[in-house]
Design a protein that fits this description.
This protein is an alpha+beta fold and 153 residues long. The protein has one domain. The chain is built from six helices and four strands. Strands 1-2-4-3 form a four-stranded antiparallel beta sheet. The N and C termini lie far apart (40 Å).
């Protein structure tokens, strides 16, 4: 159950979607020898799950992992996705969902997913949109947010 504080803050917190590039030379070279690149793009979605969606996220991930792994792998491969992680973090006053997708060409990946004729890709897109409560394509079209701080060694 969400706390009163988390519920009170919910209208003031906006879902954030960011795309960041990082130098990952040689990473996954053994797994993807023909896809070696010096840059891997990472799409990260961080948000407060809507009330009642936590169990739906768990069921969707379990369904994909147990019943549809081949369809999911084929969809990811066609779109150029190399890794997907979905995490549900338990916080003191609620939960936070972290969705991370790694790819080499973000725009090509998003275009491939949006234009896919695969029934599975279409079904998956509807499921994710329903759980996020927003159209991911529209969220990615928003102007970038202000960078407040960064540090690199």
């Amino acid at each position: 159950m969400q706390s009163a504080v988390a519920e009170a803050m919910r209208p003031h917190l906006k879902r954030r979607v960011s795309v960041s590039l990082s130098d990952q030379a040689g990473r996954h070279a053994d797994e993807y020898p023909s896809e070696r690149s010096s840059l891997i793009a990472q799409l990260q979605i961080v948000y407060l799950p809507r009330a009642g969606t936590q169990e739906r996220w768990r069921r969707l991930c379990q369904d994909i992992a147990e019943l549809r792994p081949d369809q999911f792998a084929a969809t990811c491969q066609q779109a150029g996705i190399t890794q997907v992680q979905v995490r549900l973090l338990q916080l003191l006053h609620g939960e936070l969902l972290l969705l991370t997708v790694q790819m080499q060409e973000p725009q090509q990946t998003l275009q491939a997913l949006a234009s896919s004729q695969s029934p599975f890709a279409h079904w998956l897109g509807e499921q994710v949109q329903g759980l996020l409560g927003c159209n991911l394509q529209e969220a990615l079209a928003d102007p970038p947010t202000d960078l407040l701080f960064t540090w690199q060694r």
